[in-house]
Design a protein that fits this description.
It is a single chain. The protein is elongated, with a radius of gyration of 28 Å. By secondary structure, the protein is α/β, with parallel strands linked by helices. It contains 17 helices and 20 strands. The mean pLDDT is 93. The relative contact order is 0.08. A five-stranded parallel beta sheet has the order 3-2-4-1-5, with helices on both faces. A five-stranded mixed beta sheet has the order 6-7-10-8-9, covered by helices on one side.
Amino acid sequence: MLGHVYLIGAGPGDPQLITLRGVQCLKKADVVLYDGLVNPQLLVHAADAELVCVGKHGQQRIWTQDEIQEEMLRMARQGRIVARLKGGDPAVFARGAEETAALSEAGISFEVVPGITAALAAGSFTGIPITHRHHASAVALVTGHQKDNDATDLDWNALAKFPGTLVIYMGVTTAQTWTQALIDGGKPADTPAAIVRRCTWSDQQVFRCTLGEIALRLSPASKIRPPAIVIVGPVADLPEQLDWFDHRPLSGQRILVTRPDGQAGELGDALRELGADPLYQPAIEIVPPPDWSDVDATISQLGEVDWIVFSSRNGVQFYLDRILRLGHDMRLLGGGQIAAVGDRTAEALQGYGLRADLVPADFEAESLAASLSPQAAGKQVLSVRASRGRDVLRQHLADAGASVREVVAYQNRDVIDADAKIRQQMADGQIDWTTVTSSAIARSLVQMFGESLHQTKLASLSPVTSQTLKGLGFSVACEAEHYTIDGLVKAIAQV
């Protein structure tokens, strides 16, 4: 049985600009053939798929178009669902027509999922609208790189007279040729222009110039390398205050998110919203305990517990999921009261239909202990925790006269090796900020990066985390006033 192929437009770079349909198709894929210019963060939507990069400039050989098509057909003939993930839109200078023709000829079913092409994104992300009621009522998308001896060579003389905006794709290395052709065709050399490099990526660059200056700006000495498009026309001379992209508080800053896999997205998205480029390197990993017997024993005795205390969302997930796996439901917790260390832990409880009876104002173990202690004297308290961490909560509650039993519902383990690229960026001082959201993460980061960690600014979630960092010999550039993800992002943005 033949498979099916989705040709998906990945958009211009920002991973949030892929369409909902594109994400749906990636989730269905058995294998993803993706271009080197595709943002790798999009690949998380195909977590269970085989991932095949078809080449990236400067890092690996670029596959030929024939090779890509042969591999796509081979995998589809195996009955697999193939996602062909292409930068921009498959139908705009992406050779999508060649791939659909090959699929059609082979009798393989396919779907083309549109994406946002760079010209349209540039019009929104640079403050240079490619159409304008006073300046340009038409726009032409033009390739600056054509197939040799093609009978459909562009008529640059006609384009020089085009009554609107020209957007040149793939024109960096051929800039001298096509700019001169436009000038020879009668387009004034002082026509406003803008070069947009890495459109919608956090390190997007915009260089305003004139048509006559483009070739010099794009010469090898300028170091403006692809991917880039060039906008030519009066719209490129509109006031720069129309640009919202570069005015975000964290615009262009590279920030390392160190939370565990599966929990980093919330912080990364919040940073990206303010213009940052989030990088991901988990410093710890969260896994089940090696033996569930202690957890199971406390579950069988929940009827004897007056208070059950959750110190993290992970504890909520692992402990309550275990209750469900054993064939019980949340009625087991009906006889006691529940305390949560913070709002997010309380939200996790709500996902199981449970409401926390106590949530402290400050989201730390000390505050939780202080709030619970007056009600804990003479009570049976079950504390659900990680395999490592401070003993503050148990000690305070025991001092208040509570009978405290702790149970480890999940393991918190260090990640030993950093991704090689992240490690190099850290050593070269190319990471502006590193987020540190717990003492365990602080210690793991020091083991992972050593003295290189001095090359970045450290953003701490809480005073306890800051104290740990300082004890390890590292300064803290900022600390969240409120010990939440939003508080951490706000602290970074205010520096």
